[in-house]
Amino acid sequence: MGTRPSLQDALLHASGKLSIKFRKQQEEALSSFLLGHDLFVSLPTGFGKSVVFRGAPLCMDFLRGQDVGFNSLAIVVMPLKSLIRDQLDIARKSGISAVDLSGGITDKIREELANGCHSLILSSPEVLTGDSGRDLITISTVRGRLCGLFVDESHCVKKWGQSTGTTKVFRESYNKIGELRSILPPVPVVALTATATKEVRRSIVQSLSLKNYTTISASPDRSNIKHSFMKSSSNSPDTNLAFLVKELQDRGRDCDRFLVYCQSRKIVSEVYSMFMYQLPPTHKAYVQMYHTNSEDDVQQHIVKDFGDSKGMIRVLVATIAFGMGVDVQGCHNVIMYGVPSHIDDYVQMSGRVGRDGKKSLSICMKYPGDTKHGTSDEIKRYINGDSCRRAAIVDCFGEAQTSDVVHVLHECCDICALKCMCAGSTCDTPCYRLEHLAYESICREKKLSEFDVSVPSEEEHAKLERSLKQYRDSLLGSPESLYSGPDIACGLPSSVIDMILLDINVVIPKVEFLRRYRFGNKEIGEECWRIYSGSLHRGSIAGDENDVPATCTNMYDSDEWSGDEYDEIILDDYHIDSDSDN
Questions:
Q1: Are residues 174 and 32 both part of a single domain?
Q2: Neighbouring C-beta atoms of residue 560, cutoff 10 Å
Q3: Is the separation of the CB atoms in 348 and 340 below 8 Å?
């Protein structure tokens, strides 16, 4: 009698067949699967989750031995046809026979599966949970070969399969996948995703009826990506993206690659049209747009181009439909043009860049009217908070921060950059060049010469100086507790007071006051404004408003804007348009 093959032998076999070395989490996931456990696998974008369902039937075949006479079979549920096409191609290049059910189950497909062909079934949830899909599962040779059901991009179970109370169910079939357990043989069910918050994870586990499941996870944090938030008072792409137009005009093919994500096809079209209008004919080929209505050949061309680090496209304007499963190469900059509805959407989109580990930049850009589609509490905390944005992301997913921790604050996020003292008591490292250009494009401080002039009396000058210094002293508290230095500890550096006094002859509106001077937080800025306007009797200044209309890093209001509709859901061949979208 031969020695019974071990799990480690099976993993080595699959690794060889796929021509890859398994990562620790991939190996753990396959080992738990081979032991018969249900799985919840949450690994960052670009980690290689698909290796789990490609490797599963290879491992099972090895353990069963060569005398069985048929291949093991894994069923994989996927949300987009583009994803299925991509995985079909990858499987075939690895020598794995796979079949696509998204176009329906033909007699030829049914016969091939009944005769033991194919190791992977790739299907949309609509086909698999429909009558033909259920019938296919009952075929004896299919049931006998079946080794597991895998739900890729499983966050779709929660986001599209369930009603939130304010939105209708988008793809009801996602909420029916769990029902298949009643007709499946006793095989593991595996949920795979890159972005599942704690709440989403609970919903997925319940909907798919995962029992005694094993969790394989890692933080979605990508330490090479710097996170930045900017807010504009303009809803015009011409203004907000002027820096990117100029980059393309000046540098052409040498321009850094950008992904620009928009909240709807309508905004995608507007932004793309802006580029086409602004750019010379010789540069228009460097910009493309991608959404659910793009022709198949256009979508495939864009995916292929972004799979090449030396591709021609420099700027891609897209909905979230672009990205799932796409191995984006040579791209280190992403702009969310409009605040995403959910933090997991933000993580999905920001995770498209920096796949090679190089320093990358993710900018979330807010403008008037962009949040009528609604935003979750998690994304509000992310954009409104006054502490580390990276920590806000990690906290939502309930994972420890990546072991590759960001040690340099100016590489973490825009908020941490303000606190960086890598040169001793200061930070002398400029922000990322493209971050600076974007900031200048939408958050430029006005020149003092653009404001009215009003020279205060000596008494007013003295009162302002005295009141600001008294307020600063009140913020300092006990001197014995100041280990970080008084300027950092109190949030009102003496240099800021000096700047305010230096500009005293200029009538500065509140919005510019709060933006021009680096206050530690919103409350300090508001109190300094109260002292300033009261001491100089400038309580009502032309251009001042109750709601601050524009900021970058230091403003905290988020949802006061109203505007056009942004509640369209976009996904491949499945879409729901708002009634007002024409």
A1: yes
A2: 11
A3: no
